[in-house]
Design a protein that fits this description.
The structure is a single chain. With 783 residues, the chain is an alpha/beta fold. It folds into four domains: 201 residues, no CATH class; 205 residues, Rossmann fold (3-Layer(aba) Sandwich), CATH 3.40.50; 160 residues, Rossmann fold (3-Layer(aba) Sandwich); 90 residues, no CATH class. Helix content is 44%, strand content 11%. The chain has 29 helices and 20 strands. It has a six-stranded parallel β-sheet, sandwiched between helices. Strands 9-14-13-10-12-11 form a six-stranded parallel β-sheet. Strands 16-15-18-17 form a four-stranded mixed β-sheet. Helix 14 links the parallel strand 5 and strand 6. Helix 2 crosses helix 8. The longest helix is centred in the N-terminal third of the chain and has 32 residues. The N and C termini lie far apart (66 Å). The relative contact order is 0.11. The C terminus is likely disordered. InterPro entries: Cas3-like_dom, CRISPR-assoc_Cas3_HD, CRISPR-assoc_Cas3_HD_sf, DEAD/DEAH_box_helicase_dom, Helicase_ATP-bd, Helicase_C-like, Helicase_Cas3_CRISPR-ass_core, P-loop_NTPase. This is CRISPR-associated helicase Cas3. It comes from Christensenella tenuis.
Amino acid sequence: MVYGTELARKNSRDKTQSMFEHAKHVADISTAISHCPNTSGLIAYLHDLGKLSDAFQSYIKGGSGERGSVIHAWQGAFLADEIFIDHGAPEALLLKEMMAFCITAHHNRLADGIAPDGTTDYFDKLQNADDAKYSYHEIKNKITDSEKAKLQLLFEKAVCEIRALLDHIQNAYRSPDSAAFALGLAVKYLYSCLVDADRLDAYLFDVNEEFLYSNTDWAPLTEIFERNIASFSSGTDIAKIRKSISDQCKAAADHETGIYQLLVPTGGGKTLSSLRFALHHCKKQKKKRIIYVIPYLSIIEQTAKSIRDILEVEEDSGVIFEHHSNTLEPEDDGASETRKRMASRWDSPIIITTMVQFLESVMSSKSGKLRKFASMADSVIIFDEIQSMPIKAIHCFNEIVSFLSKILNATVLLCSATQPALASTQRSNLLLAAHPRLIDCANEFKHMKRVNIAAEPERDIFSTADFTMDKAGENGNCLVIVNTRNAALELFDTIKNRAVGFEVLHLSTSMCAAHRMEIIRKMRAHLNGGTKVICISTQLIEAGVDISFSCVIRSMAGLDSIAQAAGRCNRNGESAEPKKVYVFPLKGESLDRLPDIRMGQEITQRIIQSKEPGVDLLDEEAMSEFYDQYFNGQDRRMDYPVGQAGSIYAMLSHNKDGKGNYRNRTGRQFSHFITQAFRSADAEFSVLDKNTTSVVARYGGAKKLIDEYRNQPRSVFTREKVQILKKLQRFSVPLYEYELKKLLERHALSPLDEETGILLLDENYYSQDTGAVSDIIQDNLIV
């Protein structure tokens, strides 16, 4: 359809792909993965229409011009706006806009429908078809009347899909704001289908392979899981509780698609119980994949290893893909084509990622990040430790998971030992299932008291070090959790040379993931072997790390974080008597950039002061009181406020400020359907500090991987390069802007190659104790 023998691309080996082949392949892939197959197919056929121009054909065949010098991403939108007969039907006019947004942005990022200041640059550009730089009329004249007729038939089928989508949204959502937010997500979803198909076809072309669509056969994985879970011991009280919870989760797999809550106390086996539910639910409901989302300050490798072990799959099997929040995928629009194509695709049956990666993918406007959105449809998405989500992101998160469930057929499982009332916010926009509690295990742990919380007075770093050594001496080991990397580093440096007879370990996000996993492995070995050990960690150890200390010390934080810290103490009931978890404010711990932690800390201190001594601070009543205060008065903050621009939630729903400013500028009402400020919202949104850059540390196996990558053919795209870059994720470290600047000044960073833009950290600036540092480590220079 549409294309003849014109060329779409040529690779480094001078192999060519025709426009017809590329358009057909992208259409085949996008229709296979899309919930709106006719719409996605139509977008696919039109997305590269601009390559029909004589100027582009001359360039691709070796003529003059630099890459990107011939514009080809707007002509398909011009054609759709001009030739398709819409009869003024709203759904047909909306379809034209949705197509235009996807087509024009497929190498870049989604534009704003209206910017917050009321400007409409995108829609203004859609009126510029006559500009000579587009060669639009030349291109349009190459399309025959017969081809236009075929496209019109496909357009009419697509209109029916959009009409059905609008009906579905209207029936699913209670509020106009939520419905508008869902419409914006629908644009992102269609865009994701196009980008994923376009990049996948480019990759397949380069490696000389064909697209083969297949659904995961969940039966073998489920059988292996059941065989291995049956071998687990159930001799202890806690083992019996875990088995009961796991069996209930398996039975709950018969539930319909929806959003459910899994409330399980720490140490109750949430990871494997939720996976058991997911495997059986996928098998019964024919879901495509399982996406396991862990907190952004957690450790991805332990979850991946636990799942690999119970499913008996090798790290390189392709069954499980770990996608880190500091992944090495391209961020900028000018990234090399090689690196763009190497950007990770979520096509494995099981994806393990972070909340940072999940939220910043769907909230993005960038093609590389939004590509993953299409893979979230028809899946089971497990959010572990959901209470870790920042307050500012709650309303946007609720809309995203509601859209995934109600519109894209995903089942969502919200897991926590301290379930926050996300559905009870002012917007009430979390569309839970009719009976949202997946199982009822409220009474399972009531007779088993493992810890007591002991509130202590404020201490500084030095007195904390003394207190830690005292408690470690009494108990044989001790875990200390603080709120910041600086505090963890300072406390570690204070203790490491004073704690004679103890192995002192450190954990923080300054260390690459492979390093953190090695420290946890070492820690487990010490604890199991009776070696005296002290661990100083940031809060990343609190969620998803299966480890048990005899004593835990926690710098003051929210009661939810304290509950998670307590879950690392006497976790398996090793002591019949409850063990102590000591909590106190740490003097000098700067929380200026961590407002949620600071607020949680203040609320917890108020609750402690209001309670009688000896009251259980981890019971349901105290936790409910904490969340009541934590959420109280935070409704506006849950919309993610952004100064003069209102809020990110508003930008992505009706964008009333943008429409009002447009009216003030022009004196007219805005006449288009898509008002969302996609690009402006993306520019403002971040789960963590956005000013970080990931670099690769030469730690452990990274050195061999770097050598393997550099031995690959230069300027040639290979499957091996993709696999190596995926593996290098485990050795990446996020650096703040000031850290990056210092290391650049010290010439401590060098490029991996000329293609990817990935930076390598000099090994003399990576400590085997604490990870990336800004000053050279003298010990590393001693041979």
